[in-house]
Design a protein that fits this description.
The structure is a homotrimer. Chain A is an alpha/beta fold. Chain A is built from eleven helices and ten strands. In chain A, helix 7 runs antiparallel to helix 8.
Amino acid sequence: MEYKDYKVWKIEVKNSVAWVTIDNPPVNLINMPFLEDMERFFNQVKADDDVKVIVFQSADPEIFISHFDVTALTDFPETPEPAAAELQGWKKYFMEFRTLPKVTIAKIEGIVGGGGNEFCLSLDMRFGAIEKAVFSQTEAAVGIIAGGGGTHWLTRLMGRSRALEAMLGLMPYSAKMAERYGWINRALPADKIGQFVEILANSIAYVSAETIAIVKRSVVVAEEMSRKEGLLEEGHLFAIAAGSGESKGRMNQALDAGLQTREMELGPKNRLEELKKLFGDNV
Amino acid sequence: MEYKDYKVWKIEVKNSVAWVTIDNPPVNLINMPFLEDMERFFNQVKADDDVKVIVFQSADPEIFISHFDVTALTDFPETPEPAAAELQGWKKYFMEFRTLPKVTIAKIEGIVGGGGNEFCLSLDMRFGAIEKAVFSQTEAAVGIIAGGGGTHWLTRLMGRSRALEAMLGLMPYSAKMAERYGWINRALPADKIGQFVEILANSIAYVSAETIAIVKRSVVVAEEMSRKEGLLEEGHLFAIAAGSGESKGRMNQALDAGLQTREMELGPKNRLEELKKLFGDNV
Amino acid sequence: MEYKDYKVWKIEVKNSVAWVTIDNPPVNLINMPFLEDMERFFNQVKADDDVKVIVFQSADPEIFISHFDVTALTDFPETPEPAAAELQGWKKYFMEFRTLPKVTIAKIEGIVGGGGNEFCLSLDMRFGAIEKAVFSQTEAAVGIIAGGGGTHWLTRLMGRSRALEAMLGLMPYSAKMAERYGWINRALPADKIGQFVEILANSIAYVSAETIAIVKRSVVVAEEMSRKEGLLEEGHLFAIAAGSGESKGRMNQALDAGLQTREMELGPKNRLEELKKLFGDNV
């Protein structure tokens, strides 16, 4: 499938990974062209069986995504509508990333705030470049809130105390602090984050599309179902996964290759040593 | 509004921030005078539109709050009453801090344990001084439990494994370890924590009272509603916030000042550099 | 109670702590002998009033538990059964550790992955040896998922973003990274982890069996009940704990020994200094 004629996103697919470069000068604002590209991309990639992983990155070396276009927010009616019955528009797409049966990753190497940060929070994973990424969620300064899912995601990811600090303290956060708060998966040195995300994305793309879908479903189950119901459903998902012909092939191939021999079982330690050579204390 | 004739709390309001100094020698115990001051303060500050942020600190350089007065706990009936229908007394106030439309902060520069720690957990944010703050939750040593909300807060903030360790291991935790466990927002050098909390409190006080109330409400929504219902309610809260005249004024003022120009959008990076000069790796 | 004639587990009880050494060469696989020992041990220890704490360790210096025996997984039917109505077999025991009124601890000094990691996740606490423990959850590589509770525990402990990374990224994690992700309670130097876990286990064993049971129950309450219902139940559990004769004895003993005097209340700071001498920055 070809991804062309996007306005402010550039999309390249390589080895089942879609690399999306956001290029919306001068400050990578979330404005109409951004949202149109997002909606179009979401619907296109959803139907693209060749894509298993989507990585978002920025063409701007200093700014990942600034925030939502504030000029579009100044004419809300003084008497608000009651809560809607269904999520709509861009917020709907933000939330649908959560259940999309593909893995979405933000590689954040610059400033990200407001709605830009909410976009990142709605993706599956976030990595931040040390000394370059700067995180903030400062809508409160201008009287609004993180209404694109930010209040939800921050509270779930980092707990109420850190979420309130982030949303009301009007402070910027370094990549390392963002990792400590659970805002991002991990902070990585700026000269290593590209290599790390590439290894991770290709590693995920080694997993079959069916298994990726089942693992994402299992996390949604863990988040949404009661404990007992969820654990029973997890067993059912396991049975679906284990019963597939491809899985049996992969298991038998691994056994033939020496799985469960001592040499093979020491593999993770050796792999960790390799990764330490590349990424030091960041693995 | 004046806050005078408190017994063991001293309250000073400056720039919409109430600084509450706990001064209950010899060990800052939670006893009747403490609880009477708390109840009185809670009801007074609730109605005080001039206060947006409340910071708790200790007059004792070594002890923040020791714990609940154990002499009051030794005459519980052997046959316990069934669970009550409503929270009562001090536990009710502990929990009402959670929904109070003002921000509460504990600046912890000494030992805090038992009910003192539960008091801190019931506030919105906690900061701990490195080498001075010491956290513990060791009721189990004398056969009781963290019944003032501690079992709830610790489990939510740090997960079951660390909560069980904290409540059954009878160990003290340094500020840095408390940060790593999610027990506090952040550990800060003892000679910097005062300045940090002052910057943070004043920064929050820059936010309008209405917006603070809506952000706190949005976190309660994220904690209590189902995902879908909560996200729809977040949209409604956003519309309330964005529709207010003050918010429109703030947004337009920010746009006039250059919001969405490149120079302005690089602001968070510059602000982070300033904060790094003050607080090093702690931002 | 004697624990003898186990096949691949060796059990020694000392000061109310059961030390279970897993010794299932060549790679400490979870196979039928392991599961038979687990079921037998669970039912025996459940009825053993002399045991308050259970510590799991490995006889293999490089491998804690490798994973579930994959040869047992290759014959799942292609058409999966619907979700079961009740947890069964080993998964039932994994989950019953959660509510067992004793504390379970994994002292992980080697490689642990797959079902071995799920076994650890189902215990109350996990500690990992720096430079020796290696964590992974890579079932997805062979087309299956962490169906022994892993998708549940990882999502709860570290949030959706890190859980998805762990389950789909096929990467190994060091003990320090595992601590940062919330996968384990704490990483400790390899030459100190034994002493640390021994101090912790003995410290927990100082708590009465009744109090341990009530604290574990209170965490289950915090996880499962709604906030209000849970807080009311916490009050009820507190009343049960405080009303017991043993608790009154322990409280009065502590008061007689000087509790609430300044000297005694500075105890946690002194204890932390002692622990720092042993464990440096790891307390």
